[in-house]
Amino acid sequence: MTDQIRRSSRSVSGQIAEGWRRRKYQAAFVNKMNEAEGEAAETQVWLEYTVKCGYIRREDGTRLHKTYDQIIGKLVNMGNQPQKWILKPTKPL
Predict the structure, then answer these.
(1) Structural domains present in the chain
(2) Is the pTM value of this prediction over 0.85?
(3) Cβ density class 15-31: b for 16+ within 10 Å, e for less
(4) CB count in 10 Å sphere of residue 57
(5) 10 Å Cβ neighbour count for 75?
(6) Are 16 and 34 in contact (CB under 8 A)?
């Protein structure tokens, strides 16, 4: 489970980084934010398993789960309102 949590949580930041670099293309940006959201949700599932299996304390699992809720909320907002984040086309000289 540690490996799964490590991979999915790292993928969140990787997807955000890719989306940020592609922010001149709205569809690509939104896609990457959606991918990051999915990875964050996967991380939450693995955290739930670690609590249910007794690998971490419920309080720690709850705290981490809430942190990922906040991250997911921000990713949803970015995906739903990409115009705030995408680059505006520049006018040729």
Answers:
(1) 2-83 (1.20.1440.60)
(2) yes
(3) bbebbeebbeeeebbbb
(4) 11
(5) 24
(6) no
pLDDT tens by residue, the chain, 93 residues: 889 999 999 999 999 999 999 999 999 999 999 999 999 999 999 999 999 999 999 999 999 999 999 999 999 999 999 999 999 877 776
In angstroms, rounded to a whole number, what is the distance separating the alpha carbons of residues 60 and 78? 27
> Sign (positive/negative) of CA torsion 55, 63, 66, 36?
negative
Report d(CA 50, CA 53) in Å as an integer. 5
Coil, strand or helix: which one is 70? Answer: helix
Eight-class DSSP state of 67: H
CA–CA–CA angle 6, 80, 7 (5° rounding)? 10
- Rounded to whole angstroms, the Cα distance separating 23 from 58 reads 38
